[in-house]
Amino acid sequence: MPTVACPACGTLNRIPETRTAERGRCGKCKAELPLPGVPVAVTDATFEQRVLEATSPVLLDCWADWCGPCHMLAPTVDALARDYAGRVLVAKLDVDANPQVAGRFDVRSIPTLLLFRDGRLVERLVGVQPRGAIEAHLRSLL
To answer: Which residue in the list 6, 26, 62, 70 is annotated as catalytic?
Structure first.
């Protein structure tokens, strides 16, 4: 059963397989939940809670709207979010709007994929990567 972290309070909510295409509400704070299998937007303000405190491995896509290669990688990131829903949290960080996290992890080139496990950065992939290469790194985290 896929789980979705509440963007407001961080509570993990289980979503029945039959209802994964519907928007739900958090069981704790009643905030609207993002659809499972869709990358979660992360900001400087939500990074600690969503990424470092996540109970599953995290794939963080550091991108910018003006970046052509970032747009090339986006469909792969979206597909990984769908295929690894409930096992890996796939998130996106706009580096222009969130310079603190980008600076903290020395993101100098985009797209950059950061892989976290148990609140620690364990892998960094810079540039457009083929899906197979990204999946190999994800499988090592599971």
So the answer is: 70
Q: CB of 54 within 8 A of CB of 85?
A: no
Which of 12-21, 94-103, 114-123 shows the lowest mean pLDDT across its residues?
12-21
pTM listed for this prediction: 0.79
Report the C-alpha gap between 64 and 93 in whole angstroms. 8
6 tagged catalytic: no
- Are 11 and 29 in contact by the 8 Å Cβ rule? The answer is yes
Residue with tokens 């896929």: 2
Residue 135 near residue 80, CB atoms below 8 Å: yes
The residue among 108 and 9 whose pLDDT is bigger is 108
Structure confidence at residue 21 as a pLDDT band (50, 70, 90): low
Return d(Cα 126, Cα 27) in angstroms, integer.
37
Q: How many helices (H) and strands (E) does the chain have?
A: 4, 7
71, 64, 49, 40 alpha-carbon torsion, rounded to 10°: -30
The answer to whether residue 26 is catalytic is no
